[in-house]
Specification:
This protein is mainly β and 128 residues long. The protein has 2 helices and 9 strands; from the N terminus they run βββββββαβαβ.
Length: 128
């Protein structure tokens, strides 16, 4: 799944997304945030990710079940103080790893994960 999300007070700075396909309770969900671009290539970071501000710590995080994934913001300060660059149009990719493939690979490396599962950008469904 490929998501562009807005976080705000109305949605409690969170987004709950049903998978839309069967996931086993033993499968593992990974979420990557689009963190920027360099030389025309997207930079993806595995959640959780932390950002330090004068006001405190912001964390992009997630949790999951076999039915859905919840992507949310958490902070040591009032989230309403965040500028829109931290809350609006945040892009995430959700990867569900079958339990029989979970093991020693480094899933923090987005490109290596995509290569391991023979995935490309066209394999992701864009949802808004």
């Amino acid at each position: 799944m490929f998501k562009s999300l807005d976080f705000n007070e109305a949605n409690n700075y969170a987004h709950l997304e049903p998978y839309g396909f069967d996931v086993l309770s033993s499968d593992v969900t990974l979420v990557y945030a689009l963190w920027g671009a360099e030389n025309g290539k997207d930079i993806w970071r595995l959640l959780p990710q932390q950002v330090f501000f004068e006001e405190g710590l912001l964390q992009y995080n997630f949790d999951f079940t076999d039915e859905d994934v919840n992507i949310f913001l958490d902070a040591t300060f009032n989230l309403s103080l965040l500028g829109s660059q931290w809350t609006n149009d945040q892009v995430f990719r959700v990867v569900v790893v079958p339990a029989d493939l979970v093991g020693r690979p480094n899933y923090a490396d987005y490109d290596a994960t995509m290569k391991r599962f023979n995935l490309s950008d066209k394999d992701f469904q864009r949802r808004k």
